[in-house]
Amino acid sequence: MSKNIHVNAAILIIGNEILSGRTQDTNTSTLALWLNSIGVKVKEVRVIPDVEQIIIENVNELRKNNNYVFTTGGIGPTHDDITAESISKAFGLKYEIHKEGYKILEAYYKQGEFNEGRQKMICMPENSKLILNPTSGAPGFSVENVFCLPGVPSILKAMLGGLKNDIVGGKPILSHTINLRTVESEIAKSLTAVQDKNMDVEIGSYPFFQAGKLGVSIVIRSEDQLKIDKCNLQILEFIKEKKIEIVERK
Does 91 score more than 60 pLDDT? Predict the structure, then answer.
């Protein structure tokens, strides 16, 4: 894939515990930062429940509209972990024990510990490619352009390194941040003017609260460092005119 082609991905967070608020989703941030670093832009993130038909519909829609789809959650040993079986149905593939995965887990657990519940963790769509897990043994899997990862953040993070050879990205997405002691309304008009002159650069403003004072982070994102530098100069120009303080966030 040529390095100047735009490559995009969708993230599908699966789990009732995320929707109920019992568990906080940090996987979106982990995945998005990693994907940006290898030149894959996250186009969409969805959070859905552990419901077979909803998983099937979302996977089938997203895999057609994106170069890659990453799912997290629902591939453990319990009754409500239905992601692997749902993805089998989305692709019209047989749901079966992965022979190589079985050997990995059989060797990982002590004699007698590799019970029926744990064996469920290596049931997946036929001919799946394993995503190896250096933390807790149980692998993830991929089918075509869909990559299925566990919901536990530390395990997911540890598994990303093994995916680098499977993901072909474009140019890495670069970013530059300017932190200001101001409010969004003070810079909105000037920032819009800069954005209008640089339509192929993504410029965002994000309020923050630090040491009892409000501030705004301006984030400039592009594949081209020269375009970032150009926007940066234009933003610094109106900051100087307005006598806005630039602050360091720690």
Answer: yes
